[in-house]
Structures are given as C-alpha cells and as structure tokens.
Amino acid sequence: MWYLMFAVSAASYHKRTRAAGSGRKRKAMTEYYYPVDDAIVYFTNRIGTETNAAYAKRLTASHPNVAALIEKVLAPSLELEKKLDARFHELDPECEFFFGLDRSIGGESQPLSNAAWLLLGYRAGLREEETDLDAIIARRLALTQEERDRLFLSYLFDLEDEGAPSLAGRAGEDGLVTAAVAQSGVNSLTRIKLIELSSRFEEHILRLGEILRPAVKIIIENADIYERAVSRQLAELASYGDLAAYMRAKHGFELSAGGRHVPHISVLAPHTVNIRDGIYGNMDVYLGVGVNELAELLYSGRDSDRLASVFKLLSDQTRLEMLQAISRRPMYGLELAEAFSVTAPTVSYHMTKLVMSGLAESYFEGGKSYFKANMENLSVLRRNFDSFFGLRREKSYPAEGARERNGASAE
User: Fold this and answer.
1) 11, burial (CB in 10 Å: exposed 0-12, middle 13-18, buried 19+)
2) CB-facing half-sphere around the CA of 363: CA atoms within 13 A
3) Domains, the chain, ranges and CATH?
4) Tens-level pLDDT at each residue, the chain (411 residues)
C-alpha cells in the first residue's frame, strides 16, 4: 500500500524481443524489466544529485576496505548511467517539475511531488507490463475521468482502508481531486503540483513522454547490461523459491497472502528496495540489482558503520517516537498519521527507513499495512552498542526472596 515505498522480483524470467526503430532487433529483455521506470529513476537521481556515480564515490571513500567490491557490484549501474549521461549533458528545465522532490515543512522530501511516478508509474492495476513507452502513454490518455480520479486518490490514500475518505466513491465528479488534495494534508507546494497535474493531465503525459523517450531508447538498446546485472539477483531470489519468503528473510516485509505483486528490477537504483501501491490496491515491488550484496559489503565487520547508520536514522525525532510507539503495539499507517499529525507520505517515508534498517517489520492484515518494532534486532543493537563501547551490563539478581531460597548472600 502507500505506506511502503520502496521492490522485488520473481525467481524466473523469459526473454522477449521487439523491433527497434533502427530496424535492428532489440536486445533480449526479461519480463521484469521496466525501462520506463529506470528512465524515471535516472532523471530523479540527476535532479536530486543522487547519481550512482556520486553514490559509488561516497561509498568507496567511506569503505576503503571493500572499495573494489563496491565498484564491482555497482559497475552495471555506473556503465548504464554513463551512457545516459553522454546523451543528457544538460537536463530540460521541466525535469525539475516532473522529477523533483519538494521539501515539506519538516524538511523531508515529499514522495508525492514526483510527478513522473504518478503519471506513468504505479501501473500494477493497469497490468502494463510491456516496455513500450508509447503504449503506456496511450493507455494513460485513454483513462476515463473516473479512472483518472482514482489514480490520484490511490496516490493520496489507501482506498482499501476502512478509515480512508469516502471520496473514492465519488470518482468522476467535478473538482474531486482538488477536494481530495486539500483533505490529504500534503504541503502547499505538492498541493499546487497535484492540482496542476490533474487539470492538465493529457498535456503533462505527452510532455513527460517527450522527455523520457530518448532515455528509454538508450536503456533498451543496452539491455545486455541489464541482463548481466540481473542474473545475480534472480539467482538469489530463486534460492528462496518464494517471493514472500525472500522478502521476509531479506528485507523484513511480510507480503499479503494471495495479493497480486507486480515485480520490477532496477539497474539505475541498485541499492533500493521499494514496495509501492499500484492502482486500485495492487502492489508494485521494486528491487535494485545490487541491494543485497551492497548491504553485506557495507556491514561486513564494520560495527561502526552499523551503529553510525542507526544513530543517523534515529536522529529524526518523529521517526524515533514512531519507533517507540510501534514497540508498544503494532499500528497501521492511518493510526500513525493521526497520532503524530503527519501525512500518509510522511508515515510511509519514516516507516520505510525503519523497516529497511531492520528495526521495524511490516505485515498486512485486514486490508491494512501494520508496523511493529523488531524487538530481536533492537536487542542485538543494544548488545552491539555495549560491545562497541566496552560496556558491561549490570548483573541482574533474583528477587530477595529468591536469593534467600537459593542461599545467595546479600553482600
């Protein structure tokens, strides 16, 4: 659901080919490869200055002991990004509108402000599994007003949640999206952007397609890079034999039983795991090609890295207090939003980070996404903290009556 933002793939894949515009056959593609999504990732990374080149440079500087291995894991992502950079020396000014992440009052990036994901992402409910950008655009333009409204509503609310607004039943009414945006509580910048996207839907779809088209073409033409990168991830997924088991063991996500999860694999977001709500409740699951290997490399024998990342994670007061709340009892997304007077995207942002760090877990029950603290990992964190600083816990003694029964001295 919208509570989780951030990717998974299945254990097997088949190849498909399509004719390229040049007359050459497109290189073999796998059914879980979405070039349009990776093109969106590319521009978003460029706008946010979080490119893979910058990421690799930062990691190798902070982890010199495994720098060569990090470069090896990220090599396919860097290679594909370099080919795109050669084409896009400068970005179209409109990229900021489509791919930028606005800042909320609290300073966090608002995921809702990424217009490209709203317009062309979240395709699970539409069953868009092809690599053809023009086909996706055509299907988006063919949406009825009611379907467009539900697209925006599913982006703002969990429509299956019993506490969700009754707006969903009014899809198609004039001014519904404007009313929904106002009710969602998103910040003013995002509010203006969403209303703009809704009122000029077709125009923005077509303009976004123009920006993405050359990037998608480059990604498809270099499908061999993707296939080399994805083989490692598919092998690991296959070792678990089940998507749900893989997600539970590797990433702490409990996928809903019987749910339809549309898998994607990303080359240009190699370190990312995302689970995002598709239209009408279907789940898009994204997995970066290097996410597991990178996690093992970064934490291998480096207690300081692990502790530093946790300290940074919990330096946000809202996130810390949310973790405290779910350590007392499981809570679902709207509960947390109401308890902390924040928006649904803010809950999603914080919970994703906690789940990805292993400090929290997520599971689905009764149509809701619940979150609970991972008490076992919190205990491990405490032991690691004590060990790192050479602290010894005070020895606990049995109650006084028990000491007497056991013949223990009070001295």
Assistant:
1) middle
2) 11
3) 24-292 (no CATH), 301-388 (1.10.10.10)
4) 322 333 333 323 333 333 333 333 333 334 567 788 899 999 999 998 789 999 999 888 877 878 888 899 999 999 999 999 999 999 988 999 899 876 654 445 555 568 888 888 755 545 555 678 898 899 889 989 988 888 887 777 655 555 556 777 788 888 888 888 877 767 777 788 888 999 999 999 999 999 999 999 999 899 888 888 888 788 888 888 777 888 888 877 777 766 677 777 889 999 888 776 555 556 777 888 888 888 777 766 555 666 777 888 888 888 999 999 999 999 988 889 888 888 777 888 888 888 877 888 888 776 677 899 988 888 877 877 776 666 655 444 344 443 333 333 222
Residue 194 one-letter amino acid: L
Determine which helix (DSSP H) or strand (DSSP E) holds 316, and give its type and residue range: none
> Helix %, strand %, coil % for the chain, to 5?
60, 10, 30
Cα(142)–Cα(292) distance, integer angstroms? 39
Tell me which H or E stretch contains 263.
strand 261-266
- Please write down the long-range contacts of 320-328, taking CB distance under 8 Å and 24 or more positions apart: 322/347, 322/350, 322/351, 322/354, 323/354, 323/359, 323/360, 323/373, 326/360, 326/371, 326/372, 326/373, 327/372, 327/373, 327/375, 327/378
Q: Residues in the chain, how many?
A: 411
Q: Look at strands 261-266 and 283-288 and give their pairing.
A: parallel
Sign, CA dihedral 69-74-78-79, equals: positive
CA distance 111 to 108: 9
> In sequence order, which ranges of 65-221 are alpha helices (DSSP H)?
67-87, 95-99, 115-120, 133-141, 145-156, 176-184, 188-199, 201-221
Residue pair 168/184 in contact (Cβ under 8 Å)? The answer is no
Q: Give the whole-angstrom CA distance, residue 107 versus residue 102.
A: 9
Asked if residues 27 and 15 have their Cβ atoms less than 8 Å apart, the reply is no
